[in-house]
């Protein structure tokens, strides 16, 4: 009887959390749409959305500068609502990976992800699931985060000077094909870095982008770098992120019944993929952890007086999103020290690209969690060194450029650390 009672309680709690998360995401989306319409004229909103959707938007294209703050919020809200519909229709579970993928797309919807390039990839992953006879709800992570390579659709449709029909059709077709190949590739590439790069889809998207750019260059197609950054909405962006992170904390405490006892256990986790804090500790602790990391990110931006624009705030949100599947304060701090050290010695905290490297460099948190602070600091330092050199390989089509760079850092560093450990343990044993 007690076992049945416990099972019933767990089932009820799971149903409560699932329904609460749907309500939370829905309220978040409609609040953004309401704010946008209250602060921006409808005509300006639609014009802004048009500019966001129909432009070549590879790195660094700040949607706040291109379409306005209100239109950017509507773009974010529409993507969340589509994701909620997909989860509901596919009967998907709201695990840590799904929560992470939702807020990752929220972050990148500030500077590259739009409904135009999101939907074809979503369709491509769905078609792949049908061909392989796999349940679509097991591929939602790839379906959502596969939008990392979405800008390639925009560039083909609007950046090559093709006619409207040909450009649009070819751009959408390429997006569908990219979606179809993302799932099988991401599974294989996870082994490349052994799960020590949390942004595995970023590495996958980087390889796809690299191949696509190589093919384009075979046809003498030049891809010009883009750097469109907003400088007029820093206060709105900071307030948006602050409210979002505080809502994570409050919502997490609500789900957990204001009990944080499990948080100590979470802080002892290495965070190596495939870690899912929602399944291990519950949604409440995971949302709380996301909020804490988000506030740490904002505090860091304030400390170094970093530039505030769409990509920077988007990166801060995305960095916090992975606190549902691997990050926590203790395993990100060594990475932040390493990336900051590299920036202090060789770069500038006033560079948007460098700030993104620091925020996204936290994706190597499992290295610090598994091998200690010194390994984490070294990984952070190397990440900043590598990230700028891999960008030309995919010409900015991969929004998750730091995930691409981190895959190489992890693949290079982890075997060396493990080798040193084996030698040390062997000598210690012999002595």
Task: Provide structural commentary.
The chain has two domains: 217 residues, no CATH class; 197 residues, no CATH class. It is globular, with a radius of gyration of 21 Å. α9 crosses α10, α10 packs across α20 and α19 runs antiparallel to α20. The mean pLDDT is 90. The chain has 20 helices and no strands.
Please report the total strand number as a whole number.
0
Strand portion, in percent? under 5%
Give the N-to-C terminal Cα separation: 56 Å
The computed structural class is: mainly alpha
Number of domains: 2
Report helical residue fraction: over 70%
Q: Quick check: average pLDDT?
A: 90
pLDDT < 50 runs, ≥5 residues? none
Give a quick account of the main beta sheet: strands, pairing sense, barrel closure. Answer: none
Q: Outline, from the CA principal axes? A: globular
Order of helices and strands: HHHHHHHHHHHHHHHHHHHH
Radius of gyration: 21 Å
Number of helices: 20
List descriptors:
mainly alpha
Blueprint (SSEs and pairs):
Blueprint: H1 2-39, H2 42-53, H3 63-67, H4 69-90, H5 96-108, H6 115-132, H7 140-145, H8 151-158, H9 164-193, H10 200-218, H11 234-256, H12 263-266, H13 277-281, H14 283-303, H15 310-321, H16 329-346, H17 352-360, H18 365-371, H19 373-394, H20 401-430
Helix pairs in contact: 1-4, 2-4, 4-5, 5-15, 6-9, 8-9, 9-10, 10-20, 11-14, 11-15, 14-15, 15-17, 16-17, 16-18, 16-19, 17-19, 18-19, 19-20
